[in-house]
Write a structure and sequence with these properties.
About 35% of the residues are buried. By secondary structure, the protein is an alpha+beta fold. It is about 30% helix and about 20% strand. Strands 5, 6, 7, 13, 14, 15, 16, 18, 19, 20 and 23 form an 11-stranded mixed β-sheet that branches. Strands 25, 26, 27, 30, 31, 32 and 33 form a 7-stranded antiparallel β-sheet that branches. It has a 5-stranded antiparallel β-sheet with strand order 11-10-9-8-12, with no helix packed on it. Helix 2 runs antiparallel to helix 3, helix 3 (about 35-50) runs parallel beside helix 6 and helix 9 runs antiparallel to helix 10.
């Protein structure tokens, strides 16, 4: 849940610092550097009046002649380490003091005034979004939070963040840390040397904020489960371990601002994520292309089947049903390809969009996206075949009809009804497999031109951020396996984007509510009606099967047509087809939930867009983007992307830099199944893939291996080197009946030994590599067991530079396990002639 400050509390705190217009105008005047000190004093006096709420006289200040509470430990020798540490902490908090000793108190107060004004402006904002924007001056006046640089959002920018205004700014001038000998600790007191530090800052105020509190429960096994368990199951009867309550706080104005800073600092990052995901979704709606299916999915709250005429003893016997919702939509290619015909006001179009003509010789052919095309909305018909359209910036264009591609969508609402009450990845996978097959069958029958390959080759899946059934390694591995029966990742380009936490509601949730409300109304209707419920075998709704029958009857055929005529056809969220699927345990069997383990998908919680690169392999990034350039890149797929990939000319990349990385950079990560059904098949396919890569190697080809115990270099870079003992080849095939040691390397059956010259990064965090061990280092013979990638010759550029000699020996490991978790084997170093001596 979002942390928020109640509007009343913001008012109560700001009332203590209210001012009249005259005082505010006085503060806006800047003193000339050459003016007399009395003018500077006058300006500070007006600020002081504003702080006091317009009082004519200053409130009483601290007695400057009062004695200290105790001796200053800074003037004495360190008596113990604890006090010494506290002194150091105090010195760190006032690190700027050394730079300001030469300035007068009036000058220091003058420097604090702009921050004081920014605090006032921040408190006067009317909503949390504006408060976040006010803390980020780099985006400029009228700027959008989604356009803020990640370095500003994360607090790296020296100008952005409320801490730059308050705790590292104004607060340091108002508050001074002093040693309390009685308490034997450092305490904060108003700075007697500042005219800004009036007693108003110590005034007591109240505010309210949402907090989470642990619910008192008995200790059980479930409470000991780690919160990091990403595959935990949904229990409809479970109660939340924590309650969210609105708590009242009391403290000084300084305490209130400390609290505000803590909440706003975390909320800026969250709100930036919400805004960027919202923009990404909007860009997808504007830039998506035909022959791609968009799918939104989510579990609805379980519906209740309740008898309104029940006996008292029946009150505790409730029957429920699971409702899994999905909205599938795609652009109609026949409407898109039209170059003539009238367009209505409000029609969405793509200007200069490419044509999608099916190639009988290659059903997987797709035209290249025109990067100069753009979304627009039809405003009016000007003359003949000229239309006036308005782009997303509000700019009008007069365009010929032949250049306009009509963006007309066909929407399918799918509802899964089941008596399986568990909301987990197994249920999601079972429902999704059945749904995709039925949607493909429906499209082949009714829209063959929109599915040229006969199955869905381009899919964009969108869901909320729930780890229990969507955002987990197991769920991601299942998603990558959907491509296997449809031609693999060479033919299929599947993307999964996640919404921001706490903001996952959508059209599908509304439809789920419509269905549950209808069932509730039908059950209640039987209380006053004797005719029974049409569409159900029993005439009542007593089970999930009856729920399915009732919904299917009312959203198909004549019943659906009558409903549409009664409600009218709206342009927004129009559903063209309703599809109901059921999974009843008695008829279809229980959903299989086998024990499975996976290689942990790194940084899954912080990434929000995943592109399937192979089964059990994805490219992921921290932020989603569907600009025209990212759309074109993801339509082509990520199979050929390197370990790290930046989409060329991505419009969001310029704001993604933070802490040495970019939030819009894709990184290759594994989510492979290690144990469980079909794991052996997956491992065999991965082993064959490594063998295929090694078999095609030639002298000088660049290679990427998975490292083992090198945290600074998670991947190793090498180059295939010819070996005279192997007839001048760089590889040697193990064609024996089992594993075999070749030149010290343990090579599995049908595997390959590779003669590799290793390279290491020249500097930590850099992208420049030099030969491991220096120019005279010898190659190693190693197994292709941990080989990740080949075919990257064009991505490695030769450069010049000084030689860097690294003495560390690199050891390759291997054992029986397939994947990246493998044990120690013998060192695989061999002697060979010198190889390349330049840097890369």
């Amino acid at each position: 849940p979002e942390s928020s400050v109640d509007g009343d509390s913001k008012t109560s705190a700001s009332e203590s610092e209210s001012s009249d217009d005259g005082d505010s105008d006085g503060m806006a005047v800047e003193a000339d550097e050459e003016e007399a000190d009395d003018e500077l004093t006058g300006m500070l006096g007006s600020v002081t009046d504003w702080l006091q709420g317009g009082d004519d006289e200053m409130k009483s200040r601290h007695d400057s002649s009062s004695s200290d509470d105790g001796e200053n430990p800074a003037e004495t020798s360190d008596s113990n380490s604890t006090e010494g540490d506290e002194m150091k902490s105090s010195d760190d908090d006032s690190a700027d003091d050394n730079n300001t000793n030469s300035k007068s108190n009036e000058e220091l107060d003058a420097e604090a005034v702009p921050k004081l004004l920014r605090v006032r402006d921040l408190l006067e904002t009317t909503n949390k979004y504006d408060t976040c924007v006010a803390c980020l001056p780099c985006i400029g006046k009228g700027g959008k939070l989604e356009d803020a640089k990640m370095s500003c959002v994360n607090g790296e920018c020296p100008k952005c963040g409320m801490d730059k205004i308050w705790s590292k700014g104004l607060r340091r001038r108002l508050v001074k840390r002093e040693w309390d000998a009685g308490k034997k600790e450092w305490v904060d007191k108003l700075n007697k040397d500042s005219k800004l530090a009036t007693d108003v800052w110590a005034k007591k105020v109240q505010w309210r904020d949402y907090v989470t509190k642990a619910r008192p429960t008995k200790v059980d096994k479930s409470s000991r489960k780690s919160s990091a368990d990403k595959d935990s199951e949904y229990d409809p009867n479970a109660k939340a371990a924590r309650n969210i309550v609105l708590q009242t706080f009391e403290g000084t104005v300084i305490d209130f601002l400390d609290h505000i800073e803590k909440q706003i600092t975390s909320h800026i990052a969250h709100r930036n994520l919400v805004c960027t995901e919202h923009r990404s979704k909007k860009d997808y709606d504007h830039n998506s292309r035909p022959w791609t299916v968009h799918r939104d999915q989510d579990f609805a709250e379980n519906g209740s089947i309740e008898n309104f005429d029940k006996l008292q003893s029946e009150h505790w016997q409730k029957s429920q049903y699971t409702l899994f919702m999905a909205i599938n939509s795609f652009l109609l290619v026949d409407e898109w390809n039209k170059t003539e015909g009238s367009l209505d006001e409000g029609n969405e179009v793509t200007v200069d969009g490419e044509l999608y003509i099916k190639d009988p010789g290659d059903v997987h052919y797709r035209p290249e996206v025109n990067l100069n095309s753009f979304w627009a909305c039809v405003k009016s018909h000007v003359r003949d075949d000229i239309y006036c359209v308005v782009d997303e910036e509000g700019i009008e264009h007069e365009v010929e009809r032949r250049r306009l591609r009509l963006r007309k969508r066909h929407t399918i609402c799918v509802a899964h009804v089941s008596d399986d009450m568990k909301h987990d990845r197994f249920a999601m996978k079972t429902f999704s497999i059945k749904e995709l097959e039925d949607v493909e069958s429906y499209m082949r029958e009714n829209f063959p031109n929109d599915i040229p390959a006969g199955n869905i080759t381009h899919l964009h899946l969108h869901s909320d951020n729930a780890a229990t059934h969507f955002k987990s390694t197991g769920a991601m591995e299942s998603f990558t396996s959907f491509t296997t029966s449809r031609g693999g990742t060479l033919k299929c380009k599947y993307i999964w984007s996640f919404g921001a936490p706490g903001h996952g509601k959508g059209f599908f949730d509304g439809m789920g509510g419509v269905f549950k409300n209808m069932i509730h109304g039908l059950i209640k209707k039987t209380k006053t009606s004797t005719g029974g419920i049409e569409g159900t075998a029993s005439g009542y709704i007593e089970s999930p099967q009856d729920v399915f029958d009732a919904l299917e009857y009312r959203f198909s055929g004549e019943q659906l047509e009558a409903r549409r005529k009664k409600g009218g056809k709206g342009k927004k969220n129009q559903v063209d087809k309703y599809m109901f699927l059921q999974h009843i345990i008695e008829a279809d069997g229980e959903i299989r939930r086998p024990e499975e383990t996976f290689t942990s998908l790194e940084n899954i919680s912080s990434c929000y867009q995943f592109s399937v690169s192979n089964e059990g392999l994805v490219h992921s990034r921290e932020r989603s983007c569907w600009c025209i350039h990212c759309t074109a890149a993801m339509i082509n797929g990520s199979v050929e992307w390197n370990l790290s990939h930046n989409v060329r000319r991505c419009t969001s990349r310029s704001v993604g830099e933070s802490r040495g990385s970019n939030a819009y950079e894709f990184t290759k990560r594994q989510c492979a199944k290690v144990t469980g059904p079909s794991a052996t098949k997956t491992l065999a396919a991965r082993r064959q893939s490594r063998n295929d890569m090694a078999k095609g190697l030639g002298m000088g080809d660049w290679l990427v291996f998975k490292s083992t115990d090198d945290p600074k270099q998670p991947f190793w870079l090498g180059r295939a080197v010819s070996k005279s003992d192997w007839g001048g080849q760089c590889i040697k095939h193990n064609n024996s009946n089992g594993s075999k040691v070749i030149e010290g390397a343990m090579v599995s059956k049908n595997g390959y030994a590779i003669n590799v010259q290793w390279y290491t990064v020249k500097e930590d965090g850099g992208l420049e590599y030099v030969i491991e061990g220096g120019d005279n280092a010898q190659p190693f013979v190693c197994s292709n067991h941990s080989l990740l990638l080949t075919g990257i010759n064009e991505s490695v550029n030769q450069v010049t530079g000084s030689r860097v000699r690294v003495t560390r020996r690199r050891t390759v490991r291997s054992n029986q396990l397939e994947g990246f978790d493998y044990g120690m084997r013998s060192n695989l170093q061999t002697s060979e002639e010198d190889f390349f001596s330049r840097e890369y």
